[in-house]
Amino acid sequence: MNKEINSGTYSVLFKQKGFDYLSDHLSDINYSKIFIHVDNNTKKNCLDLFLNKINLEKYELIESKDGEENKNIYSCLKLWEIISDKNGDRNSLIINLGGGVVSDMGGFIASTYKRGINYINIPTTLLSMVDASVGGKTGIDFGILKNQIGTFYDPQMVIIDPDFLKTLQKNQISSGYAEILKHSIIYDLKTFKLLIKNDKTTHDINTIYDSVSTKNSIVLIDKKEKKERKSLNYGHTLGHAIESYFLNTKKKLLHGEAIAIGIVLASFISNKLFDFSFEHVISIKKHIDLIYSKIEINENEIDSIIDLLIHDKKNSHGKINFVLLENIAKPIYDVQVKTNLIKESFKYYLS
Question: DSSP states of 144-177 as a string?
């Protein structure tokens, strides 16, 4: 695929075109140090694949532990120290080779080291391809609270190559698909109808391209999330709270697994408050039930999840703000939802 997506200050490139572009970039800039940021999974499964696609003679490897529970300030301290010990300076580059944790944290490290150095995202999971690596958001978690500390800081480029998806387990593909489905729900009725007809994930290169294009179109309108970009949080208010609550339990969920639940909940609430088509609600729930395992959530857990909503980044003046829908591709921002309706939505999900 020779297509390219222009994100304003950087480009999203696909397959070998991206690696050719990267080779030219490295020749032009002559970085003092190149750090490749991996986790233990991408070091094992993706590093050689990446190095075979580009002629890179000198680099330093920096490694973080995989998993959302390691996306924290302590991991950053370790990486900042390694970069400093290896004489990283303002003319250094970080290449983030990995999933959402690697790109979120690596971007944050780059945005803060020496008040900002260049970085490049090479996502290796479906989730990071269609979501985390694109849009210029960086961040780490604060305790169990997701993405509470972060910056807006654009990469030099993003390179998407589906060859990396061959290294993933099925549940990682499903996790990324939740964001593809969400993009169709908030932006594109035609794509939504195509996706919802299937009983499995759709994640071919054209679907990935369209999903990235959707997110990019929204971000270009509203980079700092004042209005339109809020729509990308559809399903995330409750989804993030669910993910946070179960993070250190036996029910630990991948990001997309939690967001899939959040999408069902938000769709049900949208029907109750804005007459969002119940046929769409049924279709969304049926589609998600076919792809994701049902998570049993008891009343005490629901209460604890609701308690976590107060920490959501979209909140303002102590009010919990939801993104909801009046129709497919017609989002509504900053909606307050009563607790009894939230509990009712959980009952619908569990039914």
Answer: TEEEEEEEE---SEEEE-GGGGGGS-HHHHHHHH
Measure the CA–CA gap between 310 and 332, rounded to whole angstroms: 20
Q: Pinpoint the alpha helices (H) of 30-169.
A: 40-45, 47-51, 73-85, 100-112, 126-127
Q: What is the pLDDT of residue 238?
A: 96
Alpha-carbon distance 331 to 41, whole Å?
37
Q: Which residues have C-beta within 8 Å of that of residue 80, sequence separation ≥ 6?
A: 109, 112, 113
Average confidence (pLDDT) over 167-175: 95
**Tokens representing 92?**
């250094």
CB 124 within 8 A of CB 99: yes
The larger pLDDT score, comparing residue 316 to residue 178, is at: 178
> What's this model's pTM, rounded to 2 decimal places?
0.94
Nearest to 238 by CA among 351, 347, 150, 321: 321
Contact 264, 288 (CB under 8 A): yes
Q: Could you give the angle at the alpha carbon of 266 between the alpha carbons of 279 and 191, nearest 5°?
A: 55
CA distance 63 to 37: 6
Residue 312 has pLDDT above 80, yes or no: no
Query: Tokens in use for 109?
Result: 């490290």
Domains and CATH numbers, the chain: 4-167 (3.40.50.1970), 170-350 (1.20.1090.10)
Asked if residue 102 lies in contact with residue 39, where contact means CB atoms within 8 angstroms, the answer is: yes
Spatial contact of 150 and 118, defined as CB atoms under 8 Å apart? no
> Which residue's structure tokens are 């107060």?
310
The tokens for 171 are 């549940």
The answer to whether 97 touches 47, Cβ cutoff 8 Å, is: yes
Scored b (16 or more CB within 10 A) or e, 33-58 reads bbbbbbbebbbeebbebbeebbeeee
Q: Which amino acid is at 11?
A: S
How does strand 145-152 pair with strand 157-160?
A: unpaired
Provide the β-strand partners of residue 60.
Answer: 35
